[in-house]
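Case study B.
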Amino acid sequence: MPRHPRLDPLADRYAARTHGMKTSEIRALFSVVSRPEVVSLAGGMPAVTALPLDAVGSMIGELVSGMGAQTLQYGSGQGDPRLRERICDVMALEGITDASPSEVVVTVGSQQGLDLVTRVFCDPGDVVLAEGPSYVGALGVFQAAEARVRHVPMDDDGLIPEALEQALLECRANGDRVKFLYTVPNYHNPGGVTLSEPRRQAIVDIADRYDLLVIEDNPYGLLGFDREPMRALRARDAQRVVYLGSFSKTFSPGLRVGWVLAPLAVREKLVLATEAQVLCPPSLTQYAVARYLDTQPWREQIKLFTELYRERRDATLESLDALMPPGTTWTRPDGGFYVWLKLPNGLDSKLMQPRAVNAHVAYVPGIGFYADGSGREHMRLSYCYPEPDQIREGVRRLARVIEAELDLHSTFDAVDTGSFRAVGRPVPTHTAETLVGPANSDRSEDPRA
Amino acid sequence: MPRHPRLDPLADRYAARTHGMKTSEIRALFSVVSRPEVVSLAGGMPAVTALPLDAVGSMIGELVSGMGAQTLQYGSGQGDPRLRERICDVMALEGITDASPSEVVVTVGSQQGLDLVTRVFCDPGDVVLAEGPSYVGALGVFQAAEARVRHVPMDDDGLIPEALEQALLECRANGDRVKFLYTVPNYHNPGGVTLSEPRRQAIVDIADRYDLLVIEDNPYGLLGFDREPMRALRARDAQRVVYLGSFSKTFSPGLRVGWVLAPLAVREKLVLATEAQVLCPPSLTQYAVARYLDTQPWREQIKLFTELYRERRDATLESLDALMPPGTTWTRPDGGFYVWLKLPNGLDSKLMQPRAVNAHVAYVPGIGFYADGSGREHMRLSYCYPEPDQIREGVRRLARVIEAELDLHSTFDAVDTGSFRAVGRPVPTHTAETLVGPANSDRSEDPRA
Ligand SMILES: Cc1ncc(COP(=O)(O)O)c(C=O)c1O
Ligand SMILES: Cc1ncc(COP(=O)(O)O)c(C=O)c1O
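Model:
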């Protein structure tokens, strides 16, 4: 029964949440960005080639031949018990010593963990507090839940406790239902900053005073360059903090194994929610991670990863120091994958992007990391994937693009600084910027943001 | 900051949808059911031990050693292009010859596919039409979306078109927003029946006349015992049918690889929704399925599976014929995993369950398959997992339990028949039963329902 085709004959029957989902203009650039001549400082893909692929391959092969029936069969919604035990061992490295495997739910990456937590807690219109900027994938989850995001500013020491308290008071005054604070305390994506030790306690104290639930999203916690892992927020408050973990950055993102650690009552809801969503996480990938933790030198592998990322971080910062035009500022991460850069003179990173791609360098424009359209002057640079030489070449190209933009805009004379430590050539000033607002869904060029 | 612990200190802040999620009393029986002395006719676990585990193991091992960087890295939200091509080949077996890989989204099992479709279309309060009984996992999805389920009756030829039209008219009269019909046309879970050829056309015609979207959930279509696969609804209407497929029953459920085939505009929404939910499906499992389809005799393996299931179906039906007390009726599946049984004299399958478990046999009570508490006299028997001898023993035990119940209830004299062909010893009568209503979330003993 062919009909006259309309553009989308079903356009009138989508759910409300679906109308908020927008295809990113950045994703449209993806095919360009993945051309070999382009240095991509855009993606957040871990350097999996540094894994011992042969060892991992034969380990997984033996797994299937040896215990195939289990690796290929349905499993429990909560996830493999043996893996949940090993996950508790991993969390102990960040001071979480009281976690029980029964409080852990294995998820399809920590992305699914965040989606489950959000589904369990958020009705449309509820408010979520989140750093500004914030992880783009989290903004997508909140938008799909029709939650409103209120950004809380950060500085070089991470989320600012006073700003959090201020936000809570304002929400209270507005009658907003704040469901939780979503925070990435370690090597923030995209901010590159880490929550300081005193602030950790301050935030837990605020959570207690305001009866605030905290979602601690921590995929990068073990990827510090200079120090032991910091003590998790969850290690300080087991009742008020729901912790999200992931093997994506410490082992492999392609296995999609993450987890949630939550108080038992919440864990029970999460299991029901995940059963309705995916029945159970893949068995094969869960067994692969458990076996990897059991038989491979995973701590040494993490060390190897961090050495590699440190080198790339160094290449990034050295090049930025050497090449960026005056007025450009950026953060100095001591772990993780990302530098957050602020353009000089009010330049707009999104408008600049096509020219950058023409010059064969790619980044993610800052607006993708805000729910309210802020971030135009910012960009995220990822140093996790390209080799140091590529990084240096990429930063060189980027510096040239920015310089050309400055020339173009030389009639303008705006001087502007941000809240992050300015490490560019000019002497910076510090101004806290508060950035607040409802959902948009600008996304990076691919889901690996 | 320890507080006086309450039962669930967060009880007041869950989302509305979360309050509808209930832990199943059946899941509580799980540990009992999985005791070796219990014959479980409850679970829907495929017979994965019939797979060539060594071959699959070395295939997957080589995959990782050979192309590890890709198998362990993030992939695209829509799924691996090569796999999507092979998925189109698989669907061609059911007459879907016009599908393009660009219309396919790979999902974490077809469960996630259904969740995504439901999220994209359903606002709270929207109505979903579904067979009565219906797949328990689908009811969980609809409940999580706060959609209302209106059951449409089936008989031995599947969904009854006149009843569908009736339901649509009633919904129209009520002002209900019907978002779609969810249907399992082949070897229905739990009904065991298959939609007849003429009814397929009738349902597509109704969909066209009423501008109805149809979600065709088809995990069992290639598992017919006696005939070639039937032509999919999607093969008859590419615009109005969204098709869900799965490798869980034809290859392995533990890999969690399913898919959605949808018109491009819908597909685009589904990709945005899955990116917000899991970023991307696991790469390793997608490559494993693609490689399996490329290098292993998968059609022969499906034949082997169906022979094995046919034997088990035979054992089930022969035992039922021989042993069930008068008044008991059941369906006669010619494919798939399930028999839908109706107890005599108004017996209640859920009340009877503890006694069945005591007698070392397990089934899923019928109420789990209705959103409105119907189904008390029914139960689902799965023959997919136990060996024929176990099945015979299980049915023997079940027959004894039913007989004992009948003795117990012998004061009652109710005679009752259902809409399914009665194949028990007594002469049946046919009465169509219409079963309608809103959500409950009674679930089977584990997610593998
Ligand atoms: C802060 C943050 N949270 C969560 C994720 C998602 O990771 P996963 O691969 O575990 O879903 C990422 C990935 O980049 C991330 O940066
Ligand atoms: C009718 C039906 N749909 C969907 C599913 C879910 O299958 P998958 O493993 O692909 O998520 C099942 C599993 O039993 C089923 O019976």
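Chain A touches chain B through 98 residues (CB under 8 Å). The remaining cases will be described in the next quarterly update.
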